[in-house]
Amino acid sequence: MSMCGRFSLGLVYGFSTRFGIAEDMAIKPRYNISPFQDIPVVVKEKQNTVRWMRWGMVPSWAKGEDFGLKLINIRSETALEKPMFKHILSAQRCMVPATGFYEWQKVGVKKRPFYIHIKDSPLFAMAGIYDIWKGDGKDLITCSILTTTSNDVLRPVHDRMPVILRRSMEGEWLADGPLSEDMVMSMLTPYPSTELDMYPVSDMVNDSKADDPLMVTPVKAQQATLF
């Protein structure tokens, strides 16, 4: 499974205030958001606005919308270097709100799920980019989450992690137009290890159709495979 392959948006109270959205959003708590689902994404128009986008970016130049299965995540290094993504990074940045994300650690022939969240901030934003694909008489808006190298917390489980934006940098990330390469590189770095918490959770998250608050509840490592 790619990193980041599942995440949660379990807290919706205070969502609009947290992300500077003028109108209250009717967003349902979700604990097992999976690729190719529609998700609320924050973009800057005249002001911060929520747009619903499908997770799994289909670039405007793609031949078909199934291309999005390949671009759930984009390595930040790739977005910075490859011309096909650089123009999107310069003009179509977005934030993907979350309360946490999941990763799996291989233990023998099995994979143990872990939940990762920020200790002192229930809502946070992952750095994303989006594009509009025109085909079959419709405009399809899709997005991808940028990843970076893992910090000390995630490294034992996976070598990549989503780019979590520092709150002080969220405004710059959504600003119009290109950012300097130095600014982008300073944003697309691993989130500080001391501010993250990670613990094992139930195997019920393995079912992409399941959605339950118990998914983010800690379990003992030896219990993670009992559900």
Protein model, in words:
This protein is mainly beta. It has a single domain (7-104, 121-191), classed as Alpha-Beta Complex (hypothetical protein yedk fold), CATH 3.90.1680.10. The chain has 5 helices and 12 strands. The protein has helices at residues 15-18, 76-81, 83-91, 170-174, 181-187, and strands spanning 7-9, 30-33, 38-44, 48-55, 73-75, 93-98, 100-107, 110-118, 124-135, 138-149, 160-162, 196-200. Strands 3, 4, 5, 6, 9, 10 and 11 form a 7-stranded mixed beta sheet that branches. A 5-stranded antiparallel beta sheet has the order 2-1-7-8-12, with no helix packed on it. A hairpin with a 2-residue loop joins strand 9 and strand 10.
Averaged pLDDT: 90
Low-confidence stretches: none
Helix content: 10-25%
CATH C-level category? Alpha Beta
What is the CATH architecture term?
Alpha-Beta Complex
State the shape.
globular
Question: Could you give a short account of the major beta sheet?
Answer: 7 strands, mixed
Number of helices: 5
Number of strands: 12
- What is the CA–CA distance across the termini? 20 Å
Give the CATH superfamily. SOS response associated peptidase-like
Q: What is the fold named in CATH at topology level?
A: hypothetical protein yedk fold
Order of helices and strands: EHEEEEHHEEEEEEHHE
In percent, how much strand structure appears in the residues? 35-45%
Class from secondary-structure proportions: mainly beta
CA radius of gyration: 17 Å
Work out the count of structural domains: 1
